[in-house]
Specification:
This protein is an all-alpha fold. The protein has 2 helices and no strands.
Length: 62
Amino acid sequence: MGDKKRSFEEALKELEEITEHLKSDNITLDESIKSFEQGVKLYEECSGILSEVKQKIEVFGS
């Protein structure tokens, strides 16, 4: 996505869209694999964002 960092909400929305696409009946195996791989990347991105936020909260909570 270039230099612009995607927000958590944007990444989560895209992950939800991929999930719905994977549930559809009209998807090929190749599309399923590509969508799954993209979903894993988005999951990792969301997880990383949440970890950063958790660290910030822990710093401010100390």
